[in-house]
Amino acid sequence: MLAATRRWAYLGVGWCSLGLGVLGIPLPLLPTTPFLLLAAICFARGSEPLHHWLMSHPTFGPMIKNYQTQRAISRRTKWVSSVSLLIALSLSIAFRADPLILGLQACALCFVAFFIWRHPEPANTAANGSPDFTADEDCDANAPK
Predict the structure, then answer these.
(1) Residue 131 pairs with which residues in a beta bridge?
(2) Which one, out of 69, 76, 87, 142, has a CA that is 20 to 30 A from the CA of 104?
(3) 3-state secondary structure of 92
(4) Which residues of the chain fall below pLDDT 70?
(5) pTM above 0.70?
């Protein structure tokens, strides 16, 4: 009974984390990678098929693998994130947000940008800038031994 409850808890947290991670793609103040990492951990403990699906997903899998193995963020992800941060700030300016709110938002966005850009880029990046992982690759193949 306890094992089944624990499994369902991992699945629930995993799905919530995955949902928040997906929402974090267009929302600049909601981080994507930490939620995807948490979803991967929860799915690994709650459902091997879901874990395999997430790790072999063409969009999320390489992002998770790069961060797990190298603590790296791809250049494309850095640029997309930075552009979405600027769009968010620009929208706040366009909608004439309160100057105090703009200042707080600008500080928060600068912190997020600093966090993103301070991470290295993956060592195994293809010529087009995309990660060199493939969907068929075993998710533990590049894990440190």
Answers:
(1) 125
(2) 76
(3) helix
(4) 28-29, 124-145
(5) no
